[in-house]
Amino acid sequence: MTTAAKSTNSVTLAEAGALYTAGRGYLAACTLGLPTIATINAMHADTEAWARGEACAARYCDVVERVRAGYADLVCVTPDRVAIGSQTSVLAGMVAASVPDGAEVVLPRGDFSSMVFPFLAQAHRGVTVRQVQLADLAASLNEKTWLVAFSLVQSATGKLADIDAIRIAARKTGTFTLCDTTQAAGWMPVDASAFDATICHSYKWLGAPRGVAFFTINSTFAANLHPVNAGWYAGDDVWASCYGPAMALATDARRFDVSPAWPAWVGAEPAIDLFRSLDLAEVRDHNVALGDALCDGLDLPRVGQAIISWPDADGRDLARLTAAGLTASGRAGRARVAFHLFNDEEDVALALAALRP
Question: Domain Aminotransferase class V: where (predicted)?
Answer without folding.
Answer: 87-299
